[in-house]
Amino acid sequence: MSVLRVFLIITVFIAGLFSGVSADIITLSANGSMPGQSSDWTTPENIVSFNNGLAQTGVSGNRLYTGFNNLLTSEIIINSVKLRIRQYASGVLVDDRLDINLTTNNGITWQTGNIDTYYAVTHTTSALEILDVDITAGYAWNAATVDSLGVVITARDITDIVYIDHFYLEIDYSAPTKTVTPTVSQTATETLTVTQTATSSISQTVTETITETMTQTETQTVTQTSTETATGTVSQTVTETNTQTITATATRSVTGTVSETATGTNTRTITETATQTVTSTVSETVTGTNTQTVTQTTTKTSTDTVTKTATQTITETATQTVTQTITQTATATSTFTPSAYGYIEPNYTAFGQLTGYTYRLSSRNEGPITSVLIKIPAGVNVTGGLSTTYPGATAAMNGADVEVTYAGAGWNVFSDPNFDIIKFSAISDAGLKTFTAELNGMGGAVIASVPTGYSQAVLVHTSTVTQTVTETTTQTVTHTITETATQTVTQTVTKTMTQTMTQTTTQTVTQTVTETMTQTMTQTVTETATQTVSQTVTETMTQTTTQTVTQTITETMTQTMTQTITETAT
Q1: pLDDT tens, position by position, 294-317
Q2: Fewer CB within a 10 Å sphere, N or C end of the chain?
Q3: Residues linked to residue 285 through DSSP beta bridges, in sequence order
Q4: In angstroms, what CA-CA distances link 108 with 105, 115, 119, 150, 164?
Q5: Which strand (E) or helix (H) includes residue 282?
Q6: Other C-beta atoms within 10 Å of 27: how many?
């Protein structure tokens, strides 16, 4: 007789079903290209990160194709997906915009059915800023859809140039809830076969008592601790320890007659510990520093010095001898507002003689001349004949002087006419008389200067005549005019321009996602099966006979235990 026991290994199956428990953000940068497609924009690869240069185009209809970096995990629930475009456009914006379409097979098909039928449209801005385009409704999102996503951006109605600095996906996701279902299957199959052959003579009385006691104690303790803090699953480490101890003892003792005792003890301890730790840390630091220094200093020095020296010498000899030396020095510094030339004619007359004078005045620059005051020197008496040739001007006496007043804003070198002729009559005593012209009532600070070859001085002489009975007048006039004009114009312009512009832009984006998922499942299954089979055969033989007794006992016990533990940790 033998006892055979077969115990099958308990299997544990862990299945993960997902539902949202917490939300967070993943960003995936564009990669600037799409297999099988060619972008029309300049430097499309610049869109892969912040402050990496600019992709640009100035042509409406130009397209930019791009995919995105892979998600690298599938154990998340995607709540929403949006495109983020950091862009701007130059020029006067009217309807400058970007048409957007989506694909998941590199442009073989488009989400709207046609590449020129946009899925979304966004208008450009005149300053660098981020535009958001929600594309959640475009697809049923999962990790595979995200990894296969491609986008085409088409420029429309561009007035000048449109620029893109960075283009990326922003994914709002949730970490899953794990449901752990342990399934315990136990099958116990027991086969007991007793084969007995007895040979005796005369007569035989066989009493067979089979007593079978099977005691099976199964104790199963399932302790499962699931502590889960999840914001995303990136890597998964599962450590499963399955320890199974099966002890089977079969003892058979036959003493005396035919006595059989079979004791089977099956102690089975299963300890299963499943520890799952998921730690995901995403740190992103973007630091952009743009330093531009502009300092502008403009120093302009202008020195304009005009020095004019006129020396006029007139020597006249007659039967009367008049020798007079006139030294006239005039130094004028032009202030540009106003400025004019002025001189008088004639420059020679006799004592007590009524003389008609002409004073000519012409502008030298843009400074307006609103009035002229001709200073009449002592010993000169204006008798009348005042006139001016300038349209709208009036000439009158101002005390002993002659004043001309001009209408409106006056006149300058750009006026037509840009000169005036003033006339008056006067009687003078002897001597050198100088007639200056003061401009705009500014006194001696602003007077008309003398042009080369002319004078503002009039020589009034006294004649002495010696007569005999025969009047012989011999007059020798030597008229020598020596005029020296030295005009020095020194103009120094020093322009120093130092431009320093300081612009510091520091942008720090720090994103830290720390995800810790710890799941510990400890399952202890202790199974004790004790089976005692006692068989006593008492045989009395009174005669010799040959008898063969074959007894076969087959016992099959199948026990199936299924235990389902569902734990939801939020």
Answers
A1: 555 555 555 555 555 555 555 555
A2: C
A3: 510
A4: 6, 10, 16, 11, 25
A5: strand 258-292
A6: 15
Question: What are phi and psi for residue 48, nearest 5 degrees?
Answer: -75, -15
- Three-class secondary structure of residue 147 per DSSP: helix
Separation between Cα atoms, residue 66 and residue 83, nearest integer Å: 12
Q: Which two tokens stand for residue 421?
A: 């002729």
Distance of alpha carbon 452 from alpha carbon 450, whole angstroms:
7
Tell me whether strands 419-428 and 457-461 are parallel, antiparallel or unpaired: unpaired
| DSSP conformational letter for 112 | T
- CA pair distance 536, 260, nearest whole angstrom: 6
Residues whose CB is less than 8 angstroms from the CB of residue 547 and which lie 6 or more positions away in sequence, other chains included: 198, 199, 200, 204
Rounded Cα distance, 239 and 125, in Å: 54
| Domains of the chain, start order | 22-175 (2.60.120.260), 201-281+514-543 (no CATH), 315-461 (2.60.40.290)
Rounded distance between C-alpha atoms, residue 326 and residue 245, angstroms: 143
Instruction: Enter the tokens of residue 346.
Output: 């004639």
| Local structure of residue 115 (DSSP, 8 states) | T
In this predicted model, which residue has the larger pLDDT, 536 or 138?
138
For the chain, the average pLDDT equals 73
Distance, CA of 558 to CA of 267 (rounded, Å): 17
Side chain identity at 481, as an amino acid letter? I
Query: In this structure, are residues 270 and 523 in contact, taking their beta carbons and an 8 Å threshold?
Result: yes
pLDDT at 201 over 80: no
- Rg for the chain, CA atoms, rounded: 62
Tokens of 357: 């004078």
DSSP string, 351-367: TT--EEEEEEEEE-SSS
Would residue 48 be called left, alpha or beta, if left means φ above 0 and alpha means ψ between -120 and 50 degrees?
alpha
How many CA atoms within 13 Å lie on the side-chain side of 507? Answer: 8
pLDDT for res 73: 78
Give which of 569, 518, 520 is closest to 225, Cα–Cα: 520
Q: 527 vs 7, 191, 215, 559, CA distance in Å?
A: 11, 19, 11, 12
Q: How many CB atoms lie within 10 A of CB 366?
A: 13
CA distance 286 to 10: 52
Q: Which two tokens stand for residue 227?
A: 């502590």
Q: Which residue has the tokens 């840009």?
A: 418
End-to-end CA distance of the chain: 57
